[in-house]
Design goal:
18-stranded antiparallel beta barrel, Porin, mainly beta, about 400 residues
Amino acid sequence: MTVRRKAHRWLLLTGALTVSNPGLAGVWGSQPVLGLLADYASNPGLLNLPDSAEEHAAIVLDAPTSYVGDDSKFTVLPSFRLSNAPGYSSVDSDYEHFNASEELDADRDKVTVTGGFARDSSLYRDYILNGSLGVERTTFLSDLNWDHQLSERLDLDDELNWSHVRYAEGLATSAGGIALTNYKYGSFSPSLSWRESERSKLTLAASLGRYNSLDGLTESTAINLQLGFQRQVSELWSVTASGGYSRSNNQDQTDQEELVPYQGGYIVVLVPVRLQSTQTGSIFSANLTRQSELLTLSVSAARQLAPTGFAFLARQDNYQLQLGYQATERLRLSTNAQQVTYEAPQFNGPASVSKSTSVSVSAIWHWSEHWTATFGASHVIAASGSPATTTDTTGLSFEVSRQFDWRKFQ
């Protein structure tokens, strides 16, 4: 509680100092969106239980607020949901998200500092793991990014990231028998990019990360190196791709039973043991995009080592297709198909694999400048454990929202 209050006070104080400084000339603006939402899900917790359907009504608020000066930009991004089913145990639970960032610009440098706090369900709109992992999750995060232009074509980008995640006590074991682990994760990621032409850019990126469970029993140290490129193929088509090699060293502090002589016999004692293993393999990221006035298409594939709440870093494979169509000036249609697989290493037995496949469609109708109606439908299939346990859910939602536009010049 004390840590969260201090974080909130620091973020609010920083925002107040930045926005209220009379010596700065700039624009203060806020575009909050207040919405009323009704939704239905046939199995929102992705559980193997009969009669698990739920209907909810909720108030949602997104209030992006920013101050833009001559060489700086301060942004606050609060987001809340308050429903008739308070708590954090399902995908339709309440949530509180608060992020703030400060961007400072110079001739050849851009520095961005970001801090954030979130409290939600570990399953909220994620559908990655078995539903019994849907427990309360509290996240603190910070990020420092420095982009330096070495020359007209050569850029250096350095990013330092830190996060701290805690889960509530309770339903913290998946069908596969793996418990969620409170953890902290830090990484340093430098990259160098060369603009070969107006349409092409080459990149060389590296990353060093350290993942520690807060009980002090497990840790992962990972390093990776990637080569990539970006290419604007035509006015409509662009492609981005990168690939490389990753290595993660895992350690597990555990106790093993041993028989030792005692008074002419033997007794069982627990002996501290450090187990070690290594994950190696390829990582990659690829994206193909088509952007026009009416049609937006994006196809992507990625593999990376990610912090997940398991004992060690897990390999994540993500494949996604996004399609958007501007049917009329006021009506936009979109669809999204995604498959995500997590493979978490274990010292005892094979790796644990969790997979989810989701398809969603939505229609957004702007019936006036500020009023919007959104209809959505989705279907999710999730599988985890060995042998695999499969669950699914179908959801429907309808939201009416009002956007406000407040601006002030100094």
